[in-house]
Request: fold
Amino acid sequence: MEDFQRRVVAERDRLSADLDKLSAFINDQDKFSRVAQAERVRMSGQLYWMTGYLGVLNARIAYFPVDDEPVKTEAPFWQADSRADFTVDLPRYRSHKVVQAAKIVHVDYGTRLDLAPHGVVEVGADWIEKRCNGYLLSGGYFIVYDDGYTSWSPAKTFEAGYTRVDG
Reply:
């Protein structure tokens, strides 16, 4: 193994240990509940990104040559087709809803969504945690349904399923 590959493995090991500690803290409800709500959201976001980064490092390491084996050349997991491979036939549905929505430009303090040029919406940390697994990605859409229910959708999914009906 080359020096840079050893450094990647060492970085992965350190990250994995730190991730275990952060995860253990978050899962300790007695300790975690004493942290301010906005900080809990940020910590959950940190956990999300650390987990993704660990996946990238593991994918890199998986492609390092081992002894005399050739280097793997297929696409890494983050470039692979992410569609689910269903083994059952599910009914198909077409959406006919009209919703109000705007692209999220920025998440401010983990509780406010900047929907420029439409304004800022205060949603609270609980909303973000519930809908986005603790971390809301800017660039997705904030959605308001006719009954007042609000949600979030990744941009690609929203844009593939909705067409704007007003100017």
About this structure: The beta strands are 100-103, 106-108, 112-114, 120-122, 141-144, 150-153. Residues 75-86 have pLDDT under 50 and may be disordered. The CA atoms of residues 42 and 150 lie 21 Å apart. The two ends are 58 Å apart (CA to CA).
